[in-house]
Amino acid sequence: MGLFAYPAYSSAFSLNASKDVIVGHNSHQYKVDLSWGNLDLLKTPVQDCHEMVQDSKGRIVLLTNHTKNNIIIYDKSGKLLETWGTKYPGAHGLTLVKENGRDFLLITDYERHQIIKTTIDGKVVFEIDYPADTGKYATKEEFNPTETTVLENGDFYVADGYGKQHIIHYNHKGELLNCFGGRGTEDGQFLNAHGICYDHRDQENPSLLITAREMNILKKFSLKGDFIESIKVPGALICRPVIHKKDIYFAVLQSKNASYSDSGFVLIMNEKNEVVSCPGATAPSYKNNELDELYQTVRLFKHPHDVCIDDDENMYVAQWNSGQTYPIKLTRV
User: Fold this and answer.
1) Residue 205 near residue 221, CB atoms below 8 Å
2) Per-residue pLDDT at 17
3) Could you report the per-residue pLDDT of 7-35, keeping only the tens digit for each?
4) Distance between CA 56 and CA 24 in Å, rounded?
5) Could you give the C-alpha distances from 294 to 212, 251, 307, 328, 333, in angstroms and in order?
6) CB 264, CB 303: distance < 8 Å
7) Model-level pTM greater than 0.70?
8) How far is it, in rounded angstroms, from Cα 138 to Cα 287?
9) Strand 265-269 vs strand 275-277: parallel, antiparallel, or unpaired?
10) Which of 291, 164, 175, 165 is closest to 233 using CA atoms?
């Protein structure tokens, strides 16, 4: 099946079949699988499929804010293995934590205004309420966390992407260490600090990558919270950064200038922070070291919200506000 892309923000080709459709560019191209992980909505419903991770057993763990089953665990073939969770109506961020050979999860819930640490099978280890000790928050309602990331020593950072846009640093016990960022357009501030990721690709200079989604910018900070640089991704409302080997992967919620909201795609950067592939969107192009504006060209995704890359280089795309759809699998070719 051939794909034709309209050279405009307002229109894109719609897929009417999934067989042998290839998306992406350069070294990162994928075959689309729209049937992976589809389940009986009456038995295993989803609402917004917010995030996904792969655990130490190779299983794919999906977070949804449907309180019949907040966590859905698949094998890589898409077979349902187990479900749990009924108490997380604002389940949004999902981070895998490995401690002494065991897997744990960090969940951010913006309706509960909390971060919850659980075992891989759902037992609560601790809950952290709004960070009153920072002096930045008067009430819990001001704190609406969207994401976490974890260091090797167990320290973790929380992005308050739907709240006051601060980044809060805790030790492994959940004790407050630091707070930086905040709402604004300065270098060290954010408009929608939606996602955060620990970047350990340079072991000598580890850093934090934080998305300023409404600004179409990925921002880099030191672990102490000092601003380092901004990486612009024109036209792309990027969700959390996901590092796999040397590359960074993003779900892009939507194209900034599209006339319809479900205009998202996937974006991949290399180790030089250059965009090398955009499955579902324009091929990345640079002029005078500036990235041309990106936009959806294939009506494949509906508000993609997160990606998970498995150990076979395949990608799973979880979607928000997509009509209760299960994740889309992209098989690397």
Assistant:
1) no
2) 52
3) 444 456 566 554 689 999 999 999 999 99
4) 28
5) 16, 13, 18, 21, 23
6) yes
7) yes
8) 46
9) antiparallel
10) 291
Pick the CATH number of 21-332 from 1.10.10.1020, 2.40.30.10, 2.120.10.30, 3.30.390.30: 2.120.10.30
C-alpha distances (whole Å) from 144 to each of 124, 139, 159, 319 are 20, 11, 9, 20
> Closest by alpha carbon to 69, among 91, 86, 81?
86
Count of Cβ atoms closer than 10 Å to residue 76 Cβ: 16
SS3 59: coil
Q: What are 48's two structure tokens?
A: 């917004």
Residue 54 Ramachandran class (φ > 0 left, ψ -120 to 50 alpha, else beta): beta
pLDDT digits 0-9 by tens, 215-248:
999 999 999 999 999 999 999 999 999 999 999 9
**Rounded distance between C-alpha atoms, residue 110 and residue 143, angstroms:** 7
Q: Is residue 175 a contact partner of residue 164, using CB atoms and an 8 Å limit?
A: no
* Selection from 213, 202, 210 nearest residue 180 by Cα: 210
Give residues with Cβ within 8 angstroms of 316, minimum separation 6.
36, 37, 52, 60, 307, 308, 309, 310, 327, 328, 329, 330
